[in-house]
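Input record, target 12 of the design panel.
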């Protein structure tokens, strides 16, 4: 029998080992960079997830509390940048009527890991939960866009059952312009009685164009409009007179300035009304007549729309055009000033019997409004319009 011998295997040379080590080093660097990126994304995902879970837990806590109360830390005066209604969340808070039941773990299963990274905040006016760098001033998040608040009726010192409501919508320069704004009204409110005949003034609008406008650059411009009922009880109109304005640079139109083209000086925006009841909510859907406007806002812009609790005036001579625009001079006669805003004047506005337009619910609670927006660049698929939530303080405390 012939014996076969196995030849000895040679080892790696020094050059081969160095080459392998260099390749491993490059791979390690690539993997390390990927891991760091994943860490940042993981942290972002964790914050988003915690925001959702904390929001649900806070809402559950408030609903069980009597009177309704959020789990917050009592913040004393003198805090830098402090804004009324903004508080830190207290994860150790006990339910007011049941001290044995605490926020964590009865409403939130465990203290979120993210609480070691950020300070969790809440706007008690709206119930919105957000986070900020630990130790930073108690201010609203920067993306706040729509605030809704209740104001005493003219001549009153405190909110009443039929107080006025102020809706403050902010729009940044060059952002997508809104086309439709849907405002959801909580159940329990009473909105516009059947006695409001066509032409009744149920609200007014004050618009402020900041100094970055391209109409009269460097000057703040204010104009406005009125909210009127129509012959259709389920539709109002917002009639805006764009070229009747007050400006710190030119108080009248004599300087030749025009906010809108002359043939679009007056625009009629529609407001579709679905009235809330004691057990179901309602909506106000504002559809904006864009005319020849482009896709983006041309200036930093703020709309302050007031809905009155009691209507006491109506227009006699103004007829709402059937189309979305009308020629210059067809708007509502009004004085526009920084002090008084947009105030309808003239013989076309007369007094009428007091009519309740919006009445507060009888129950003491925080009533959470909400709003969505469809913009000029939002997608449309078939008949489906896509909306995004408008962030801001949209909760109203009724005592």
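The sequence produced for target 12 reads:
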């Amino acid at each position: 029998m012939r014996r076969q011998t196995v030849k000895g295997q040679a080892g790696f040379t020094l050059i081969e080992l160095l080459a392998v080590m260099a390749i491993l080093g490059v791979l390690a660097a690539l993997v390390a960079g990927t891991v760091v990126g994943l860490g940042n994304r993981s942290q972002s995902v964790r914050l988003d997830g915690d925001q959702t879970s904390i929001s649900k837990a806070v809402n559950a806590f408030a609903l069980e509390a009597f009177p309704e109360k959020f789990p917050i830390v009592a913040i004393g005066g003198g805090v830098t940048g402090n804004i009324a209604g903004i508080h830190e969340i207290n994860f150790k808070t006990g339910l007011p009527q049941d001290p044995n039941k605490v926020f964590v773990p009865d409403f939130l299963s465990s203290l979120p890991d993210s609480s070691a990274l950020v300070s969790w905040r809440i706007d008690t006016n709206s119930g919105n939960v957000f986070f900020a760098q630990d130790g930073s001033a108690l201010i609203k998040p920067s993306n706040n866009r729509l605030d809704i608040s209740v104001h005493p009726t003219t001549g009153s010192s405190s909110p009443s059952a039929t107080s006025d409501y102020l809706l403050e919508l902010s729009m940044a320069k060059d952002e997508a312009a809104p086309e439709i704004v849907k405002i959801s009204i909580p159940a329990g409110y009473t909105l516009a009685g059947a006695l409001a005949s066509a032409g009744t003034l149920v609200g007014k609008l004050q618009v402020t164009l900041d100094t970055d406008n391209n109409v009269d650059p460097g000057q703040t411009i204010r104009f406005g409009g009125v909210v009127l009922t129509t012959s259709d009880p389920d539709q109002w109109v917002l009639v805006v007179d764009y070229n009747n304005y007050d400006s710190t640079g030119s108080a009248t139109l004599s300087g030749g300035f025009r906010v809108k083209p002359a043939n679009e000086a007056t625009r009629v925006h529609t407001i579709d009304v679905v009235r809330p009841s004691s057990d179901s909510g309602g909506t106000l859907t504002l559809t904006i007549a864009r005319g020849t406007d482009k896709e983006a806002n041309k200036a930093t812009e703020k709309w302050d729309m007031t809905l009155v609790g009691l209507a006491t005036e109506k227009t006699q001579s103004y007829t709402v055009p059937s189309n979305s625009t009308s020629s210059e001079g067809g708007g509502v006669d009004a004085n526009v000033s920084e002090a008084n805003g947009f105030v309808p004047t003239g013989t076309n506005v007369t007094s009428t019997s007091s009519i309740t337009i919006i009445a507060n619910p009888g129950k003491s609670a925080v009533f959470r409004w909400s709003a969505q927006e469809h913009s000029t660049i939002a997608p449309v698929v078939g008949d489906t319009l896509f909306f995004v939530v408008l962030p801001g303080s949209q909760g109203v405390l009724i005592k």
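The chain has a mean pLDDT of 80.
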